[in-house]
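[SOLVED] Need 3D model of a two-part complex

Original post:
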Amino acid sequence: MTTDFRAELLASGLLVESSVDGLYGRSGTFEKVVRGIDDLVTSAGADQHAAVLHFPAVMPRLVLERSGYLRSFPDLPGSVSVFEGDDDLHVGLLERLERGENWTELLTASDVALCSAACHPLYPQCSGRLPAGGRRFEVFGHCFRHEPSLDPARMQAFRMHEFVYLGEPDAAVAHRDLWLERSADLLSGLGLAVETVVANDPFFGRPGRMLASNQRAEMLKYEVVCTIHHDAHPTAISSSNYHLDHFGIGFGIESANGDVAHSACVGFGVERITLALLGAHGLDPDAWPLAVRSRLWP
Amino acid sequence: MTTDFRAELLASGLLVESSVDGLYGRSGTFEKVVRGIDDLVTSAGADQHAAVLHFPAVMPRLVLERSGYLRSFPDLPGSVSVFEGDDDLHVGLLERLERGENWTELLTASDVALCSAACHPLYPQCSGRLPAGGRRFEVFGHCFRHEPSLDPARMQAFRMHEFVYLGEPDAAVAHRDLWLERSADLLSGLGLAVETVVANDPFFGRPGRMLASNQRAEMLKYEVVCTIHHDAHPTAISSSNYHLDHFGIGFGIESANGDVAHSACVGFGVERITLALLGAHGLDPDAWPLAVRSRLWP
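Solution:
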């Protein structure tokens, strides 16, 4: 995405920048679009009879450790440190702060980490044996990824709205495939010129290149991509993933027959979809085509 | 709040516990109430013509440093650490993780911290000279406070919905007083038995006792309190605060006449209000009194 579009978003007040790249405040208008997208995604999944869960931006650090995320993407997550000292250490902290020195050295690691993906805090809830047919969840979550960027489509803090299935392998693949089609339909129904592509995650380091190439070869990850602004590269605004037994192993989840559970999820990046709509239809949602507005705000 | 009420909330699925005290998932029903409260608070402030800003759960660490929060409440905030090493250090991290050793020592402090109060990320946006009459904002934010507790009214991660004024001292006091009355009316209109009390923040350590007593003596902070469950102590579900020139000094904000700006805010704790409603009217919002439902979901 060009810095021009970023400048337009900031000038319009839809996004408010901060002193850190990739952290923004959102206007009421921006959030009105977010709510419309969330409601539309919820409607699209009404037939799933999914249990709805909203998670905060932080989760137990144990979930990060078991998720495998530190193996594949160690550079992206955030761990939370806190002050556990007494009055004397507090005096020392304030002295360092005043002198502009490093005060964070006086902190200790807490048992809390930022969520990297909306569905991570869900998996420990499912440890043990699943019922026959598996389970379906609709998850609203906040993600943090430490990748400072001036591209508004690459925020450090953003929301993801997911539908997750846990259970049998066949049903997991079917969930991924159903939602791949459904998400492409939903997004093209909003007037977005989308395309569905095989994709890979941005795995870290040298070993990551092999992981990425395996993921593509096995076609585990599909993305719905869209050119958010006319002279930018296509960006993923939704992705559908088959995790094999990755989370089943990590969190001790079994399907009804006692095998390790497989899982799949579709994730809608609500900030990116909002940006794509603003790029396609203009910065004033009240002036968007009626067909789009009536879908978002029926 | 008794552990009985906590057990009821968990059994009903309204809250889903995690392995860390004070971190919960919320059900769709819980969030329906949250949305109703947010919409009602927004309506109550329609005459303020406030600029609306939604902030994510993380903000620049610089905001935490300038907010004064580390002086008064060093034990509550969270600073975010990230991995910035290479492939070799990554191998070391994974080895520590596998052996159950402390891998967080290999992280470095990022320039990001968790928000402690919804309005903190707003203040750096206002640095410089304010227009005549000051400025009003409606702020939606996520707060993190490291105070693990089994009391569902003391979550580590929760949301706050605020109206903030920055400008002249008299107008700041008037904002605080207006919203003190308005918030008590709004909350009692939801069938909650509320009371308005002079309050103090939980300042840290020995010097904190004096700060708390000064805050009470100057009557800077009022809380609307409510007994969330019948055999619990009253809990603040909203607070109205006059900050004097605290944030004006910290963030270099001047009123139109060049004096340091004063500020005031009202904060609605949406999780606590939701819990108070569940405690007062029962765990099934569809069975709440019509007068309450018609206010929340008109």
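Edit: Chain B touches chain A through 72 residues (CB under 8 Å).
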